[in-house]
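Support request, priority: normal
Reporter: lab tech (M.K.)
Component: structure prediction queue

Hi team, I submitted a job for O-antigen ligase family protein from Microbacterium sp. LWS13-1.2 yesterday, and the status page still shows it as pending. I've pasted the exact input below so you can check whether something in the sequence is tripping the parser. The sequence length should be 423 residues. Please let me know if I need to resubmit or if it's stuck on your end.
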Amino acid sequence: MPAELLLFIAPVLLLGLLLLRDLPIFGLLACLILARAAFDGPFNLQVAGNPLSGVLGILILGLGIASGIRGWRGFIPMLALGGVLFVSSQSALLFDADAISEYIRLMSVIAVFVIVANLRNRPSPRAVVTVIQLTALISAVFSLIQFATGGGLVVDGVLRATGTMAHPNSAALLYCMAISASVIAYFELGHRRLDLVVAAVLFVALLSTGSVGGIVALAAMLCAYILLSPRVAMNVRIGVPVLAAAGVIGFLLSPLGAERVSEFVSLDLSGASGERNSLEWRIGRWQDVLTYWEQSPIVGVGYGASAGGALLNGYPPHNEYVRAIVELGLLGIVVIAILIVATLRALRRVARTGEAAGALATLGIAMLGGMLVNAIAENTFMYSVPGYLLALTIASALWRPPRSTSGDSLQSMKTYERKSHFA
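Reply from support: The job had stalled in the queue. We restarted it manually and it finished. Here are the results:
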C-alpha cells in the first residue's frame, strides 16, 4: 500500500476510533512514540515496501488530523503551516524527490502537539516523564548490549553504539532528553531514587554513543534548567552543575570519549590540511550548502531540499541553522526565531505559576535549549523521536482546558493533576 494512500486512510480510521468516548488518546500516542523509537534504525521491518517507521509517522499524523478535526485546537494553524511548507517543499523537489517525505515527517511532529492540545485532560508531569524515560530506555538497552559486545555503527573508523536509533548522534540526543527529564523529575516531582537510577543507566548509554554533541547538549539542557527556570532551589543550582561536570569528566575519561575528543585537538579552519575530522568536514559542508542560498536568499530554495542530501552528495548539512536559511531563507529564519522566543516565554510563564504543569514547562525549557545548542553541528530537528518528545512536553506544559469546561470541572482537573501520576 503506497504511503500516500495510507496518508488518507489513516485519518479516517483514527477519526472513527476517536468517536469512541473512552479511547485513551494519550496512551495511544505514547504507544506510537514508543514503537517509533523501537524502529528508528536503518534496518527497520518493511511494510508493503515502506519502512515501519514511516508508517508509524503517518499514523501519528493521522491521529493529529483526527484530533484537530474533533477538538479544533491548533488545527487551523496546523493547516496553515502545513500549506506553506507544502508549497515550499514542492519547489524543493527540483533538488530532491525525498523532500515530500521530510515534509510528512515534520507534520507528524506538529501533529503530536495538536493531539496533546486537544486532550480532555492535561497529562500529568509524571506521565510525560515516564513516556520520555521508557522511550529512551527501549533504545538504551540495545546501546548497552552493543557497547558490551562490540556492536554498533562504525563512523569515521570509530565503533559507536546506536541502540535502536538510526545514528549514534540521534541516540545521544534522545538519551540527553531522558536524562534531563529524570534529573528534573527527581528535583521537581518528589525525589524518587528511581529517577536517578534511570539517569545513570541512560548516561552510560550516552557514553556508548561517543557523541561529543550529545555531551554538550546534555550540559546545555542542565544549564538551561538551572539558569532559566524560576523554580530552581539553591541546592539544585549547586547539585546540577556538579552532576553535569561529573558527566563531562566521565566522558573525557572513557576510552571512546577520549578517542572522539582527540579528533578535535588540532583544528584547522583554513582547509589547507584537508578535512581531517568530523568538525572540519562539517565546516566544509556548511560552506558548500550556503552557496545554494544565493539562489533565493529571501524565501530559500524550498523546505526539504537538503534533508535527503541532494545538495551535498547524500549528506544533510549537519547544522540546522544553515539548513534553515538555505531551505527557508531569511524570512523563514525570522519566523522560526519568533516562534522559539514565543515558546520560551510561554513556558517561563507557566513555570512561574507553581501549577502542576510547572515541572513540564521547566523540562520544556531545558530540552529546547539543549536542542538549539545541539543544532549547531547536528541534524537535530530531523530526528523524529526527539522531535515527538519535545512536542509532547511543550504541548503538555501549555495545555489549557476547553472553553466549555465549567468551574467545577476545572477544580476537579486541578485535583486530578495533583493526585495522579498518569493521565
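The mean pLDDT is 79. Strands lie at 46-47, 50-51, 153-155, 158-160. Let us know if anything else looks off. Ticket resolved.
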